[in-house]
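Assess this one:
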Amino acid sequence: VANHSIFTVMGGERAVVYDKLLGVQDKVRKEGTHFKVPFMWEPSMYSVRIQPREIHSTTGSRDLQTVRVSLRVLYRPDERKLKKIYQEIGLKYDAKVLPSIGNEVLKAVVAQFDAGELITQRDAVSAKVREGLVARATDFGIILEDVSITHLAFSDDYTKAIEHKQVAQQIAERQKFLVEKARLEKEAEVILAAGETEAAKLIMEAMTSGNRFLELRKLEAARDIARSLARSKNVVYIPGSNNML
């Protein structure tokens, strides 16, 4: 009889007690050892630790593309509503509620966006899903600590169409680059030719004006030769006069 007169609530758990005469009791038992009326009271344990759960849904976007979405939620029951959870849902409340409301919210949110927007505006989509799911879970006495989209995929046909579009854009960018490169090279050739023509013109003008241009070239060449010889260790300078010891 003694064994039937006590029950233990482990750490991270809460107990809801069902009285066979009076029904579910209002008081929720916390961790520790508690007394009970043998054969009359039946305690049921709920974990109040934060737990993860994956929710998967296949739905449609605003432009009628098939979208596969996966959510990860971190949840726990609201201790103040454990009696209601026990009475209306039961012990497996998470398996009964979370997939249902998850699909409901995902379908409602995804239908507001085109397929492309689901990718480019993923943060906004995730925020709307989180807001809607938190509100719906609260109605069932469930607290969601975190909601995040872990997977977002489209139909095979749409994925292939996106890949083909990306390849086409890359080819177009490559062609644009080649055309621009050819244009710049052509402009460079024109500028170079114009410079050479101008240089030749200046040289002709200098030559026709007299021999000063040629003399200047000779002096510059002689100067370069003298500098080269001065740097060489194998060249000995001998003065032009005969005054040597």
Remarks:
- Residues 74 and 198 are 78 Å apart (CA to CA).
- The beta strands are 6-9, 13-19, 23-29, 32-35, 41-47, 51-60, 66-77, 142-154.
